[in-house]
Amino acid sequence: MNILFIVSIIGIIVIFPIYYLSLEHNRLENKFGKEKGRKIGNILGMISGWGFYIFWMGIWFSPQPRFTIPLLNIFFIIPFFDFILPLIHIIISIPFIVLAIYLGIKGVIDTSLKTAETHRPEKVVTTGLYNYLRHPQYLGGLLAHIGISFIMSALYSILSTPFIIIYIYLLAWKEEKELVKEFPEEYLDYKKKVPMFIPKFWKK
Fold first, then answer.
1. How many angstroms separate the CA atoms of 175 and 152, rounded?
2. What distance in Å separates the CA atoms of residue 138 and residue 198, rounded to the nearest whole number?
3. Using the 8-state DSSP alphabet, how is residue 63 labeled?
4. C-alpha separations of 142 from 28, 88, 175 in Å
5. pLDDT at 77
6. In whole angstroms, what is the distance from residue 82 CA to residue 101 CA?
7. Quick one: which H or E segment has residue 172?
8. How far is it, in rounded angstroms, from Cα 134 to Cα 198?
9. Helix, strand, coil percentages in the chain from 3-state DSSP, rounded to 5
10. How far, in whole angstroms, is CA 60 from its chain's centroid?
């Protein structure tokens, strides 16, 4: 197993408790004071957020065995990289990647880049994508993981999908636990109406 893939997995695990702590706004402010606690939380949010995505990209792009779905035996060769790209993988990956890009960008627009980076919302956002699901950016990240794993034909990356699903769920669970503390009635009401990851368009 390639060392870069191992480092990426270890890195994403090490980042986990830092990410968790960055979500504990009340705890940090009670311990260090409101202003200092807010600054520490923002710094931890930036470090854990960017660290998480950097190590996640390491999982996708690190050298690893390639897999191929034995359908439509048409392949493209990427010049200079000696990389073979199966057509069936392109067909499968495009919907995942396109939807992931939309969810990621629209999710940031709906909440603001600052909130996405620092994990500190100023209010409960219930408009835009957040009218249909509570965690569009996490869902977008998961879809991107699947799509990029296919387009890269990355065996270890696609096999790590169950780990990524659990990881994202735990982050979302912790985030909601803290949001309930910060916005008790408002967020509990929001949770009752809006699903976590799978939108229910037919109820709107």
1. 31
2. 11
3. -
4. 29, 20, 17
5. 65
6. 27
7. helix 161-182
8. 9
9. 70, 5, 25
10. 13
Contact 173, 19 (CB under 8 A): no
User: CATH classification of 3-203, choosing from 1.10.3470, 3.90.550, 1.20.120, 1.10.287?
Assistant: 1.20.120
Which phi and psi angles does 154 have, rounded to 5°? -85, 105
Span 17-23, mean pLDDT?
Answer: 93
Give phi and psi for 160, each to the nearest 5: -80, 0
Backbone angles phi, psi at 148, to 5 degrees: -70, -35
Q: What does the longest C-alpha to C-alpha distance in the chain come to?
A: 62
Q: How many CA atoms lie within 13 A of 75 on its CB side?
A: 14
Secondary structure of residue 66 in the 3-state scheme: strand
Domain regions of the chain by residue span: 3-203
Q: What angle do CA 25, 44, 24 make, to 5 degrees?
A: 20
Torsions phi, psi for 121 (to 5 deg): -80, 145
* Chain segment 53-109, per-residue pLDDT in tens: 999 999 999 999 999 888 777 766 665 556 778 888 999 999 999 999 999 999 899
Question: Residue 118 carries which side chain, given as an amino acid letter?
Answer: T
